[in-house]
Predict the 3D structure of the following.
Amino acid sequence: MGTFTVGLVPHPTKSVLDSVEILRGWTTRSQAHLLAMTADAARVGEGVELVDERTFRDRVTVVVALGGDGTMLGAMRLVAERPVPVLGVNYGNVGFLVEVEPRDLPEALDRIGEKEFSLEAHHALEVTHTSSGFENTYLAFNDASVARRPGEGVVTADLVLDDTPYGFYKADAIVASTPAGSTAYNYAAGGPILSPAVAAVVVTPVAPMSGIDRSVVLGPSELLRFEIGDGTHSAALEVDGRVVGDVSAGCVVALTLRRDAGQVIRLDADRHGRKGRLKLSLLDLPLREDQLLELVPSDVRARFRERAERAHGIAGIAHDDDTAVTGISPVR
């Protein structure tokens, strides 16, 4: 495994040094290399080779993202030119992309070394923003949206499909989502959930006032374009939740689906699917995770905790009763 190279992408603020130490030990024993980007030097500590972004992309065999779904998305965008497998280690809260908890990382690395895993392909949206003659392109694995800024009126835009006008929007925001991203902003806005097996794009208006007032599902080869109208004074272009540009009248936002732009490591696809369905169902409840836990009898909570301690050892318990019962870390 001498040419096997693990790329490390840490959470921007949380301490992940316990997992970095596990990665250092595993790569040393496996005669593999461990890389991180120079910009992350302070977060990964000693014993990790630091390289620039281009070298990182060119050399890694697999990427380990230590964080939540946001860190995962950043790691996937980073290597999208050469979509190597990405493993997510959960340092967030409710994650749909992350695969393992920090305590399970040693076993996960052993299975990766033995090639005992599957890959889940993820589509992405190529987003091209044209304004005043300047053009910028971004990649969104979840969604891209044009959203009004507070106090700045509404978003008006014509929807054009393959150069054919389809209709118009007048709304607080317009969200275009991939199948994976359909469980996020799109779902919160009342849009449908798309199966990950489908290559499609769903477009959903947020608080529509006139024009198209429901979701539109588009095929993978259709070129989608929002031509921003005169009624838009100041709006933001958001890509996977990050504001990347300003949008106003005359701007054009074009989107097309890039198939299989990312590869996510799954160690147990069935288990991940069950957890995902559970997390999605919990999002529909008008309760926080800690409030939901109060509905579980204390004796049941105690039994779950005892089972977790027997399975992982008391020292390996990284979360509290909430996680032992629900599998979801509470919001701190």
About this structure: The longest strand covers residues 252-266. Residues 314-332 have pLDDT under 50 and may be disordered. The CA atoms of residues 77 and 139 lie 7 Å apart.
